[in-house]
Amino acid sequence: MLQTLSIKNYALIEEVAIQLNSGFTVITGETGAGKSILLGALGLITGKRADSSSAGDPLKKCIIEGTFQISGYKLESFFEREDLDFEPLTIVRREIAPSGKSRAFINDTPVTLQQLSQLGERLVDIHSQHKTMDVVVKEYQFDVLDTFAGNVELLKGYKSHYREWKSKEDILKSLLSRKQNAQLEFDYQQFLFTELDEASIKPGEFEELEEVLKTLTHADEIVSQLSNARLHLAEEESGALDRVAAARSSLNVVSKFSGIYQQLFERLQSVQIELDDISQEVDRAADDVNVDPLELERTNLRVQQLYNLMQKHKVSETSDLIALRDRLDADLQASLNVDGEIESAKASIAFAKAELEKIAGQLHIQRVKAIKQLEAEILRLLKSLGMENAQFQIQLRQTDEFFGNGMDEVAFLFSANAGMEVKPLGKGASGGELSRVMLAIKSVLGKHKKLPTLIFDEIDTGVSGEVALKMGGILKNMGSSMQLLSITHLPQIAGQGEAHLKVFKTDEQGRTKTKIVALSEEDRVTEIAEMLGGGNHTASAIEHAKNLLH
Q1: Can you tell me the distance from the alpha carbon of 30 to that of 83, in angstroms, rounded to the nearest whole number?
Q2: Comparing C-alpha atoms, which of 538, 441, 458 is closest to residue 494?
Q3: How far is residue 144's CA from residue 375's CA, in Å, rounded to a whole number?
Q4: Quick check: 33 pLDDT over 80?
Q5: Among 158, 229, 239, 480, which has the highest number of CB atoms less than 10 A from its own CB?
Q6: Which chain positions lie within coiled-coil regions (predicted)?
Q7: What's 490's DSSP letter?
Q8: Count of Cβ atoms closer than 10 Å to residue 146 Cβ
């Protein structure tokens, strides 16, 4: 429920603060007084877009703030989901800077316009003339029927299962698509895998083979140079080993005369040992060199094979080829297993579908049970609103298709005149007739559902006299279970409000301003008398106004 509304520097409103109560409140004022400004301000705190022209004084900030009592609205999950502090008395504020930049706050926490809109639509329902067309929308018609039928919890269960079924259907589509793509690529992937698998690639093999290939390619030169080295090291009398041995023998003779000579002898002894070891290594290396043209050819072919594979798959190491082979193997196995996954997905879908059909059937039964009584209640209200010959029917047809709210198709059929064929709402009903149908529906809904603050903008267009009086009665009755505001030009409706706000213009210091005031009982008599007498406070108008009020 909207408890307070504060408006500063918005359009023609300089500053106003309104205290609102539960029940039925009427809003009156001359044409052009600024009642639409009030609706615009409410629109801003419920998420409508704004611009710099919203500000009355372009140099000042525009601020609109509403205080809502939301303890019975079951909005805790919304606040938790949006990471906002839940307060039973929630403050919503909208600020528009002179630059046109807009900011929104819920309980002093900055929020996006989308968050504000999501909360706003659950707090305030502004029913203007263009919104009358909601009644022709199928989703709205289902909402009316399901609310009246008490299907709220059943529908929640259906929607949960529907989302699950849709998810399973999406998985099946993905699997079928994967199978189709796999079939197209399977042969090629199988070829690539076989080629890599038969290559029997080992980690680091290419690098090792490159070294072997260098040795085989230069085998003759290597053998020749190793032989020369061995000759220089071990040739008798002139080889390095014999010369070092002779030098070592000479130093051995003098080593006993000085520690220096002893050190030189020992160092040369170490050199002799190292040279002897090198000589043996050269011998072994020379023996290991394989001067084999066939081995050279085989190694060269293997290196070329690995090089071509790396070039083909645009990789630089044999480990990448191994990883690719393993990945292809996994993809091929997945392709072979997809049929099993598809069958499993189909079985899961069949189970989910059976559950959906069961709940959809329960929804259909509940809807069918509710239709006659709902038709009767709406017809009763329409007749009281001066549509004595109105016909209203709800057509429900069960289908084989799943929708977001069941397996039914619904149509609200209407005719305002006797003997005329009923047609879907919106195809023959005038704007005034649609407004009365919407009022009747909202009145029925108000008895079965916790509705947000409901604001009717001139729903009384096209009615007068006794019908207007009955419309006022319906609005007053709706106000007994919800907060309802109605902008009206009819005294018959204004007289039935539990509270009365007046919107009017004044000229102050050369500037036109819109003001909103709450009327006292005495002021209401005067206001309604003016509505009756066109501005004349005749005794009969005053008396009539009192009668309407009491």
Answers
A1: 44
A2: 458
A3: 11
A4: no
A5: 158
A6: 261-288
A7: -
A8: 23
- Distances in Å between the Cα of 326 and the Cα atoms of 176, 259, 307, 544 are 24, 69, 19, 93
**Taking phi first (over 0 means left), then psi (-120 to 50 degrees means alpha), and beta for anything else, what does residue 258 get?**
beta
Q: Residue 364: its pLDDT value, please?
A: 96
CA atoms within 13 A on the CB side of 101: 2
pLDDT class for 16, splitting at 50, 70, 90? very high
User: What confidence tens digit (pLDDT) does each residue in 132-154 have?
Assistant: 667 888 998 999 999 999 998 99
Alpha carbons 166 and 159: distance in angstroms, whole number: 10
* Contact indicator for 322, 203 with CB cutoff of 8 Å: yes
- Select from 363, 427, 514, 448 the least CA-distant residue to 18: 514
- Per DSSP, the chain holds a count of helices (H) and strands (E) of 16, 15
Q: What is the DSSP letter of 420?
A: P
User: In this structure, are strands 62-69 and 23-28 parallel, antiparallel, or unpaired?
Assistant: unpaired
Using the Cα atoms of residue 136, residue 413, residue 452 and residue 32 in order, give the sign of their dihedral: positive
Please state, in angstroms and rounded to a whole number, the distance separating the CA atoms of residues 14 and 55. 9
- 3-class state of residue 489 by DSSP: coil
Please identify which residue in the block is written with the tokens 């005749």: 538
Q: 392: closest CA among 141, 129, 151, 155?
A: 141
Distance CA(173)–CA(99), nearest Å, equals: 50
476 closest CA partner among 435, 446, 510: 446
Where are the chain's structural domains?
1-123+452-519, 205-316
Check if the beta carbon of residue 209 is closer than 8 Å to that of residue 310. no
User: In terms of Cα–Cα distance, which of 416, 408, 426, 456 is closest to 149?
Assistant: 408
Instruction: Convert 513-524 into a string of H (helix), E (strand) and C (coil).
Output: EEEEEECCHHHH
Can you read off the two tokens belonging to residue 522?
């005495």
- Model pLDDT, residue 333: 72
The first and second tokens of residue 138, run together, are 């199928």
How, if at all, do strands 2-10 and 13-19 pair?
A: antiparallel
Q: How far apart are alpha carbons 148 and 105 in whole angstroms?
A: 35
Q: What share of the chain is helix, strand, coil (3-state, %, to 5)?
A: 60, 20, 25
C-beta of residue 462 within 8 angstroms of C-beta of residue 499: no
Cα–Cα distance between 335 and 183 in angstroms, integer?
8
Residue 502 CA to residue 102 CA, distance in Å, equals 29
Beta pairing, strands 483-487 & 23-28: parallel
Please give the CATH topology (third level) of the domain spanning 1-123+452-519. Answer: Rossmann fold (3.40.50)
Query: Whats the size of the chain, residue-wise?
Result: 550
